[in-house]
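Write out the 3D structure for:
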Amino acid sequence: MEQRKRRKNLQGIVTGRSGNKSIKVVYFYKIPHMLYRKEVRHRTVLHVHDEKNECCVGDKVEIMETRAISKMKRWRVVNIVEHTPIAK
């Protein structure tokens, strides 16, 4: 029997909620510029499955790569690292 490969784990910030059990997470990373070698900041927006519907905009979350859940969602929430206070 084959061993399953390690899944990718990332940390990002929730930027939006769209529909039931769905959130958008922004993941920031830096790579050096090809010519000038200065670190350039990039971002990737990921569509994430939030099974318990408990993430709010601004939360810092840990996400894990998973099977395709819908057309866009390929990631799921593992845990919430940091909650943001909800403005009322």
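The beta strands are 9-17, 22-32, 39-49, 60-65, 75-82.
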